[in-house]
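Review session, final week

We close the course with one last complete record, chosen because it touches almost every idea we covered. It is Chloride channel protein, a protein from Hucho hucho with 728 residues. Go through it on your own first, then we will talk.
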Amino acid sequence: YIMNGTGNLMDFLDEPFPDVGTYEDFHTIDWLREKSRDTDRHRKITTKSKESYWELIKSLLDAWSGWVVMLLIGMLTGTLAGVIDLAVDWMTDLKEGVCLSAFYYSHEQCCWTSNETTFDDRDKCPQWQKWAELMTGHSEGAGAYVLNYFLYVLWALLFSFLAVSLVRVFAPYACGSGIPEIKTILSGFIIRGYLGKWTLLIKTVTLVLAVSSGLSLGKEGPLVHVACCCGNLFCSLFSKYSKNEGKRREVLSAAAAAGVSVAFGAPIGGVLFSLEEVSYYFPLKTLWRSFFAALVAAFTLRAINPFGNSRLVLFYVEYHTPWYMAELVPFILLGVFGGLWGTLFIRGNIAWCRRRKTTLLGKYPVLEVIVITGITAVLAFPNPYTRRSTSELISELFNDCGALESSQLCDYVNNPNMSRPVDDIPDRPAGPGVYTALWQLALALIFKIVITIFTFGMKIPSGLFIPSMAVGAIAGRIVGIAVEQMAYHHHDWIIFKNWCRPGADCVTPGLYAMVGAAACLGGVTRMTVSLVVIMFELTGGLEYIVPLMAAAVTSKWVADAFGKEGIYESHIQLNGYPYLDVRDEFTHRTLATDVMRPRRSEPPLAVLTQDSTTVEDVETLIKDTDYNGFPVVVSRESERLIGFVQRRELTVAIKTARQKQDGVVSSSVVYFTEDNPQVAEACDPQPLKLRRILNLSPFTVTDHTPMETVVDIFRKLGLRQCLVTRSG
């Protein structure tokens, strides 16, 4: 009678527990386990689909759900990116003036609709008024300048104060770039709420505010975070992804690709960026999915058309002049500059962030943001190159001087008796405007280098791509103009003789700016392949792949000579996230016995036995330790391994059993064996059979396995723990 009773009671545990298999916050997932769970699910669906048509349709829907998620991610990401672009344009111009015909037009849109503009003064139109003109009626003079200056700083302070307050009150996770955390999450770490709905909403809004406040930061990194939030949002609609952390990370990898795709209008670059920089586990299926997500995102952005020129690309260049072998020397020099800037930036920024963590500075995030914004705005306004938004600056630096350019950088001395086609303007001596511009650019370069170090890592969304590209583009343009003038004045030198005839257009300064931008971005992030692809997708300059590659490789070599970590890895280390980098070499010559816990001096290993532990013992063990799981052994004497049981599943199982199964008390024995335990007398408490939650194939290595092999196993299989055995 008792045997039957216990038999029936013990079988109830063969139904699945609620909640088993989810992870705690700030824990690492077990990739192997997630993978096998997904295979089981797949097998179930396949066997069921043969039973009826309805199940077959369900299995087809399940197979399609991956592509549906990608479609949704692409559409939402593209829409958000378009909205962000439009809002940033409008709010950046709001600092200088307002459009009278419709206040929601940016400067450019305002003057498009105007009939009074001439081509030379296309930036001046009666509908667009600067603040001083609007308030006092004077557009020139010292008073107007001071008033404009004051309002510029005031708007900047207002925007950044709003941004930091929103982040602080509603979503503390929305600050920073987000890429270091995304990398950590994709490597199998869990940060609850980092990709939540609030973070998505606040990050989108504060990103607009932060970029418009004129701080030295870009919107590219945060857009990856926003895209991953969208990915997480849509994962929760499908149980295939919401219940399996491993599958969810495949979707997030693809979402990251969509984020870069809309940030730069570079779909292929986005896929490569996800593959090279952020992803940890990237199967071929994810490659196709990210390709599709990036495509949909780019389509959606193109449909919104935020730049109004029916191009996706931020900095489209029109020139296609060839480059010459001798120019590789300045290109490689720019690469060296990029590597040095990358090293300087990483060292400086990490030192500053460490100070923020350890000193009083970290206690006043709002004050810090306001002070930095104040300094930035006050120093930026007098210089026309730092006053406008960074993307406009880069755009101007990349462009070549055509016949119609009204920019100061194009103030060359024209030869009056030259009649040539408009497109191919020969090299000319620099006029006074170019020299003024060079001075202002040199000051802007120093300003950008210093201020970016302090800006990145504050408590507002801040990307890194645009500021580092700006530093490189300024340096490159200066070098380009120098080379151009040298070629003009000394075209009989041996290096210029072969390719620079007098009256020909041989040096393109814009190309140098492009190469410099690539070099600096490469020095900071240590990307190579995806960087070059992003750069030529961004500018449309397909002829310049080789110079870009040369600069990217040089900058990586130079920066790697000073330190192997890029900025994202350095921030991961600074924040102490658990991240096993695939690229690190493991050099120590140790064995598994030297590294395993517990050490000789520590208390012995916490284990459960297969048939002699009571419920009370288990509960005490769980209360006294904070391990994530316990090995199950035959007995305390032999310690031969049977399996491994997760802490979380153990607590859930005991809790459930106490509620649902009669007769389970503190002195009940817990069994992990296959056959039913013998209950000797009726007065003994009910045993509790927990074979179901026992993992019978835990990953083990022997005690003489070299540590580099163990590290490799952890990296490649994504283990959560590994048991060290000696003869079982």
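Two points worth writing down before the exam:
The chain has three domains: 66-304, 325-411+426-575, 592-725.
Residues 53-94 form the longest helix (42 residues).
Good luck, everyone.
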